[in-house]
Specification:
mainly alpha; 2 domains; Endonuclease Iii, domain 2; elongated; DNA-binding; about 210 residues; Endonuclease III, domain 1; endonuclease
Length: about 210
DNA sequence: ATCCCGAGGG
DNA sequence: CCCTCTGGAT
């Protein structure tokens, strides 16, 4: 099957499986989503959701976080792993937003990736989910794995995968395709033991049963 | 390529 | 013990 046609079919089936896409991270505005997404690096969303309520209560605004004590932040995000880098980056990002972006989370890729600890994946999540702007497709561990297994890319580098994926889906669907692949990656096409026998994409999957 | 790093599953 | 979890910086 042609790759583009396979991509359309994947999107169609997953859109039916997930009719009401909801982000798994808890957030109420762009800054909270940015922080939650930074914390979600190599960590489950479930665990992130356990630490963010206290975090946002302790430092409710970007300006509050910009003046936070790093060590106190470290202790509150410790369980998410990489806690020193994450705490430092969150506070530094808050400062940069206050000092250079007028106190508001920027709404472009070029500006977002200037924030420490924020690269294309995190920026794409914030842009699509908080601002409904689709500059690219967020490529994380799930999107990477499923794109490769489903034959949508031959590459393993996230930037090249993103370039391979963008022409395969309509721009307005770039946010949804991330959500679909992440959820399907968790529920069926997981990393260790993909459930190929109960996979509704098996008939169009080049790697069925291989991995 | 390597480091950052805790928590949970198998 | 090993691998994985919506990565990013050096």
């Amino acid at each position: 099957m042609i790759k583009k046609k396979r991509a359309n079919e994947i999107f169609r089936r997953l859109a039916r499986r997930y009719p009401d896409p909801e982000p798994a991270l808890d957030w109420s505005h762009a800054w909270e989503l940015l922080v939650a997404t930074v914390l979600a690096a190599q960590c489950t969303d479930e665990r992130v959701n356990k630490v963010t309520p206290a975090l946002f209560k302790r430092w409710p605004t970007i300006a509050d976080m910009a003046t936070a004590d790093i060590h106190e932040v470290e202790e509150m995000v410790r369980s998410t792993g990489f806690f020193r880098n994450k705490a430092k980056n969150i506070v530094a990002s808050a400062s940069l937003i206050i000092n250079e972006f007028g106190g508001r989370v920027p709404e472009t890729m070029a500006e977002l990736i200037r924030l420490p600890g924020v690269a294309r994946k995190t920026a794409n999540i914030v842009l699509s989910n908080a601002f409904h702007i689709h500059e690219g497709i967020a490529v994380d561990t799930h999107v990477k794995r499923l794109s490769f297994r489903l034959g949508l890319t031959k590459h393993t580098d996230p930037v090249r995968i993103e370039k391979d994926l963008m022409p395969l889906f309509e721009r307005k669907n770039w946010g949804d395709i991330n959500h679909f692949l992440v959820y399907y990656g968790r529920e069926v096409c997981n990393a260790q033991r993909p459930r190929c026998t109960e996979c509704e994409l098996a008939d169009i999957c080049p790697k069925k049963g291989v991995e």
